[in-house]
Amino acid sequence: MVKHSRDIAFLSGVVYFVQGALGISGISLLLFLRSLGWSISEITTVTSIAAAPWFLKILIGLLSDSTPLFGYRRKTYLFFFSLISAISWAVLFGSPPTKGWIFTSLLLGNFGLAATDVVTDGLIVQHSTKMTSHVYQGIAWGSRSLGAVLGGYAGGQLAAHFQPKQVFLLTMLLPFAVTFCSLLIKEKKISRGPFQSWFGPFKRC
Known about the structure:
Number of helices: 10
Structural class: mainly alpha
Radius of gyration: 18 Å
């Protein structure tokens, strides 16, 4: 692969590794909510509703494709969305343990993660060729699986030795890795996107 393709491959590896590794907080989050007196039904209901941003991925993709942010279609979106994901864990760490704040932090986290996923997919598709598309796909799934395995093991160890809020603070560092990598993306500034409106991509179908 050319230098630019290697940059995209590296970015996709980091993004999808972080997606898998975010499971590092899964056990600690469950223990934290149970310590607050939440029932299992309350936990499943709130976490399920907070996952709603994953159903809005197509809208996030249309926004990124049609509306450049500060002149970029991918770079700035990836920066801000990953930053939102990191902030969500900071909110969970520092906010009062009320249902409203917890729901807000979980909703922000899912929104940032889902949006980061969409923008990264768009970046990969934009730079894929017949020679590289399968490489990116392998890197993405391999990195996510590796992150999930390591995150699951580390999550159990951390939950056994640290307080949940300490684990949340550590988890916050993972999206920050994506925020940093977004600054390394080589992308030309543009004044407008390739589509005049959000419905532009559908007209090409």
